[in-house]
Specification:
43% helix, Rossmann fold, 11 strands, globular, alpha/beta, six-stranded parallel beta sheet, 313 residues
């Protein structure tokens, strides 16, 4: 067990969507937190990564930095997605080892899982096939963090742990239509349509695939709990235990935003993974994590945040 109080903790990606919530929770636990922002520390460059460790002198590293996006951006820039994610992870973990960091938490992705596996998906299924094609380069780059963590533990005795979150959402999410995930993309489409008086919105795919979503504040609590209490090599799923189809999700978001127009499904766009839902029993057993925020409550908070902040951005 890692006592976090008074520890020096470096959080890569600490100024991002998830990272801001993690940093706040660490500060609440009286930690000294160092965030290597991209304007000062480029984690793609080894010299810059070394400098971050020299400046931070961390006891613990929580590696959240990633190049992320929805299906559109992962299809458009698969090489960048693969290269940047794998290089950030490789170099940050290597420097953490050389700096004798006590603990390293690596954040993976649901995209690391194979395309066709039983649902709810257990951690044991992680190597039972190839990821869904539209996000495979990203998913495989993130999965290499697990390989590295386990190899470093085996050879060096390095305490590295690996978590696999489902899709996150919440206040502060990325609402850029070029790179956003499904929930912020749909919220923005509905709100824009209401503002513009549009009678319909276009939605990607068939609406048949299912997804599981985890509210960002719940995810940040899981990360901090795992940093405190989990010290094993096995990967751990983070999820909410709630599965919803894309068509049901669209109907829910249109209702909560107040959009009353028609839906035009663009079947020429990819559906992505057919179905996603995690078995989350390991997280509850190993470090006592269970999601607290209901999906509708989380969506309401996200929509309220977007409506309040978009006018001043």
């Amino acid at each position: 067990m890692t006592v976090l109080s008074a520890q020096r903790i470096m959080v890569t990606g600490g100024d991002g969507f998830l990272g801001k919530f993690v940093v706040k929770k660490l500060m609440d636990r009286d930690c000294t937190v160092f965030v290597p922002t991209i304007d000062k520390y480029n984690l793609l460059e080894m010299d810059s990564v070394k400098r971050a460790f020299t400046d931070a002198r961390p006891d613990v590293v929580i590696h959240l930095a990633a190049k992320v996006g929805g299906i559109g951006i992962t299809r458009e820039k698969p090489a960048e997605s693969f290269y940047e994610n794998i290089m950030m992870g490789l170099q940050t973990m290597e420097q953490a080892r050389l700096a004798s960091v006590k603990k390293f938490l690596a954040l993976g992705s649901v995209c690391a899982y194979p395309k066709n596996i039983p649902v709810p998906s257990k951690e044991e299924y992680l190597w039972d096939g190839y990821p869904e094609e539209t996000n495979a380069p990203y998913g495989l780059a993130k999965k290499m963090l697990l390989v590295q963590a386990q190899a470093y533990r085996q050879q060096y005795g390095f305490n590295a742990i690996y978590l696999l979150p489902v899709n996150l959402y919440g206040p502060g999410d990325n609402f850029n239509p070029q790179s956003s995930h499904v929930i912020p993309a749909l919220i923005k489409k509905c709100c824009d349509a209401i503002d513009n008086g549009d009678s319909s919105i276009v939605v990607w795919g068939s609406g048949k695939p299912t997804r599981e979503f985890l509210y960002v504040e719940d995810a940040s609590e899981a990360i901090v709990l795992a940093t405190e209490k989990y010290d094993k090599p096995d990967p751990v799923n983070l999820g909410s235990g709630f599965e919803i189809s894309i068509s049901e999700l669209v109907n829910l978001i249109t209702r909560l935003t107040g959009f009353r127009g028609k839906l035009a499904w663009d079947s020429s766009k990819p559906d992505g993974q057919p179905r996603r839902k995690f078995d989350t029993s390991r997280a509850e057993k190993e470090f006592g994590f269970k999601a607290k925020t209901s999906f509708e409550e989380g969506l309401k908070k996200t929509i309220d945040w977007y409506k309040k902040t978009r006018s001043i951005r």
